[in-house]
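call fold(seq) -> tokens
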Amino acid sequence: MNLTLKIWRQDGPTARGELVTYQVPDISPDMSFLEMLDVLNERLNAEGKEPVAFDSDCREGICGMCGLMISGDAHGPEKTTTCQLHMRSFKDGETITIEPWRADAFPVLRDLVVDRSAFDRIIQAGGFISANTGAAPKAEAILVPKENADRAFMAAECIGCGACVAACPNASGMLFMGAKVTHLGELPQGQPERAQRVAAMVATHDAEGFGGCTNIGECSHACPKGIPLDVISQLNADMRKAKSGRL
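ret:
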């Protein structure tokens, strides 16, 4: 495959960025998208040019570090993470535009790398259980209905990649936050701090500059783990109850 890449290049957070065009020949359709970028960077290194900066870690679809906007789609044309996207999803001769996540809460650090520490601060605000439960009980000692357990596991699949924010026209992080609130809210251990958790996380979300949810649905469509929109409904319900003192 011979491809034309238009890649966002930016030297630093305050530098002016631009799309730079590269020709990448002889790409195997079995390569992952990140392997294709590795090939480009090897060539740039050999030519004495600055390689393209992009994030990656596990390259197994687990960590969520690899997020990119690919021709306008978060993670690209397939419902998967960028590292699990393969070049066979594109056509020979295609022009591919590659950009970083676009959101005020995710400032660009360099090229395709953004600062997603705002997600960390939301988790620090309340996405945890601090109630002292003593020694770990036996698994069967705390009864959890299967429906609740299944829903908690579903929500826990969120990897915090930020695709929901990048895909949302409002740059809202409500799907991410809804997944974390749902994960802990479905379990008995999460009940003592449930009200203060949702209030603290929502306050931090808004302070970080994320937008509000207007039920467009692009977030769930872009999510590589398929987190459904109803976690946002649960987040909103918990927030209303927390404000009224009924949670």
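The radius of gyration is 20 Å.
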